[in-house]
Write a structure and sequence with these properties.
The chain is of the alpha/beta class. The protein has 2 domains: 251 residues, 3-Layer(aba) Sandwich (Rossmann fold), CATH 3.40.50; 166 residues, Glycogen Phosphorylase B (Rossmann fold, 3-Layer(aba) Sandwich), CATH 3.40.50.2000. Helix content is 45%, strand content 13%. It has 18 helices and 13 strands. It has a 7-stranded parallel β-sheet with strand order 3-2-1-4-5-6-7, sandwiched between helices. A 6-stranded parallel β-sheet has the order 10-9-8-11-12-13, with helices on both faces. Strand 1, helix 1 and strand 2 form a beta-alpha-beta unit. It is globular, with a radius of gyration of 22 Å.
Length: 432
């Protein structure tokens, strides 16, 4: 069986597909991982997988969304507070990066969003698929070119999630409100998909938007309620490969705390102003404590800051090497780092953010509900209050027990190796 993965060009998204890609490769299947440009292929290759670069250069069209139209949709949806948070996350965090892959020029003849010198990423993906002929396409939910390439090449296809299913959730909200269409307001996902599908003579239906099924690593207790066919899979930790630094050879001399705000926001500078405030606050909170803080931050995030003596700053270190040595981890609420912390039984402190408002709170609700950590709210708490929360997590053994309960949730879910036979069966069913 030939399996093609499509991946958003962000390190965290590449890392999310590696365990399943390796499981399929280890079972004897041919695996290719398609992403958008040469720089994004490096973490694919370092994981021992074969990459396909769909662009010859690190080119991105500008992100563009129609804010006025989205404001009108927001008004007409009239959602309650929690649902409004999910919609806001979709429109502000998910939609802008998606627009990179569907610039205006992608619907015109001759190529990409800035002229013929940047051929369409959609065309290149479809071109590769029609030549290589995959049996199965596992596509990033932000990449609607994935199901288009699958249909054109005759492959079965499914989404491979990396977080909560905003896409199906938003579609369900629009399905519940048919009167919105009478006002000329449609699901933005449909509007984004139609020009891409029409380019190849395809129509948009539920299957093209949401896959023939969905491979989902999110624990059931964390998932949004949606009407989708799901294949659960365990979120095995993978944080990339690197040479182990000498300071990670043995156990730390004092409690070690990891600090990360995520690689995607850092690399693409999402919410940069808020990140700068969070960094400054956490330097003050943990500075001077009898702990070693390993901060995965770069020079831009630390610009103008004085780094305390008990901080070890690293641009990057695989969290699969770091977390087993830690007594706690402070992070932004990303599911990858949260799941890895659960695997290693590490208590968590989730930073509540305005930029990532709903997602950070959703993760914090799950973690704190199991007694595996606390939520840190720097915008509404003083430095002494935040410091006391950090010390509580380090001192009280109950948080370690809570972290172990999160691990039991993961163990109850099939591993990537376990679901390979199911993917084989589903592929055969959908390619008959």
């Amino acid at each position: 069986m030939r399996v093609l993965f499509t991946v958003l060009p962000a390190k965290a998204h590449v890392h999310a597909v590696v365990p399943l890609a390796r499981a399929l490769q280890g079972a004897g299947h041919e695996v290719r991982v398609a992403t958008t440009h040469p720089d994004a292929t490096r973490p694919v290759v370092s994981a021992g997988l074969t990459a396909v670069a769909l662009s010859d250069e690190d080119y991105f069209p500008p992100m563009r969304v129609d804010e006025e139209r989205l404001d009108l949709i927001t008004e007409k949806l009239a959602l309650g507070e929690e649902d409004a948070g999910v919609w806001q996350e979709f429109r502000t965090i998910v939609m802008p990066p998606m627009s990179i892959f569907y610039p205006t020029g992608d619907t015109a003849e001759g190529g990409g969003g800035d002229g013929a010198e940047h051929p369409s990423l959609v065309d290149r993906l479809v071109g590769f698929a029609t030549q290589w002929r995959p049996d199965l396409v596992l596509w990033d939910p932000t990449w609607l070119a994935g199901p288009v390439a699958a249909r054109v090449s005759g492959a079965a296809h499914a989404r491979l999630m990396w977080g909560e299913d905003y896409f199906a959730w938003v579609k369900d909200r629009f399905d519940e409100r048919p009167e919105l269409a009478e006002l000329g307001l449609r699901d933005p996902l449909v509007e984004m998909a139609e020009p891409v599908a029409a380019r190849y003579g395809l129509t948009v239906d539920d299957e093209l938007l949401l896959g023939q099924w969905t491979v989902d690593p999110i624990p059931p207790a964390m998932r949004l309620a949606t009407n989708t066919r799901t294949v659960p899979v365990q979120a095995l930790p993978y944080g990339g490969a690197d040479v182990l630094p000498e300071w990670l050879y043995g156990a730390p001399e004092r409690p070690r705390v990891a600090l990360t705000l995520g690689t995607t926001s850092r690399d693409y500078e999402f919410g940069a102003e808020e990140q700068a405030r969070l960094v400054a606050t956490m330097l003050e909170v943990a500075g001077g404590l009898d702990v070693e803080v390993v901060a995965a931050l770069n020079s831009r995030q630390l610009a103008g800051q004085r780094v305390p003596d008990n901080f070890r700053v690293v641009d990057y270190v695989p969290y699969t090497a770091l977390l087993p040595t830690c007594s706690a981890v402070i992070h932004h609420g990303g599911y990858g780092i949260s799941a890895a912390a659960a695997v290693y039984g590490v208590p968590q402190l989730i930073l509540l953010q305005d930029h990532n408002w709903w997602h950070s709170r959703w993760t914090a609700r799950y973690v704190t509900g199991r007694g595996a950590g606390l939520a840190l709210d720097p915008a509404r708490s003083s430095v002494p209050q935040l410091r006391e929360q950090l010390l509580r997590v380090l001192r009280e053994p109950g948080f370690r027990s809570g972290a172990e309960s999160l691990y039991r949730d993961l163990l109850a879910t099939p591993t990537p190796n376990d679901i390979v036979p199911q993917l084989e069966r589903l592929t055969a069913e959908h390619t008959k």
